[in-house]
Amino acid sequence: MAFELTERIERHLTGDLIAWLTTVTPAGRPAPRPVWFVWDGTVITVYSLNDGAKLRHLQANDQVAVHFNSSPDGGDVVVISGRAERVPDAPIPSEFPGFLGKYAAQITGMGQTPQWYDDAYGVALRITPQSAWTIPR
Fold first, then answer.
1. Cβ distance 40 to 26 under 8 Å?
2. Would you call 33 exposed, middle or buried from its count of C-beta atoms within 10 A (0-12, 13-18, 19+)?
3. How far is 16 from 24, CA to CA, in rounded Å?
4. Domain ranges (residues) in the chain
5. DSSP character for 74?
6. Which pTM value belongs to this model?
7. What is the mean pLDDT of each run of 10 residues along the chain (137 residues)?
8. Which of 1, 17, 50, 55 is 20 to 30 A (C-alpha) from 34?
9. Residue 50 half-sphere exposure, CB side, CA atoms within 13 Å?
10. Could you tell me which residues come within 8 angstroms of residue 63 by beta carbon, excluding any fewer than 6 positions away?
């Protein structure tokens, strides 16, 4: 099933602050992590810790899942499957279109600066959605 951008999926991609990125360890175990992300209408961009485990996972298996928190009663579920790749020529997070507009308040709320985030989370990952499912459908 090909990826279809529905209103529900787009609402999460444009409105949510946190998504869960699940990679697969080299041993084959799922490894979910909460991430900040930016949706550009085609791909999801996530910045990883420079030495993050997800980078090692992606070397072994580029298949990922991205999902969002559901409603309290278990509805409004969105799960996107796709492939992730490192983007070696990506700008630093603070210069990536839309990143600071979305996360500057969170960085400041942590008592940090955009420079701290740039230094610690310097590896850009591009996730290309391939399929998705939702509840309710």
1. no
2. middle
3. 23
4. 7-135
5. S
6. 0.95
7. 91 97 96 98 97 95 97 94 97 98 97 98 98 92
8. 1
9. 7
10. 24, 81, 82, 83, 84
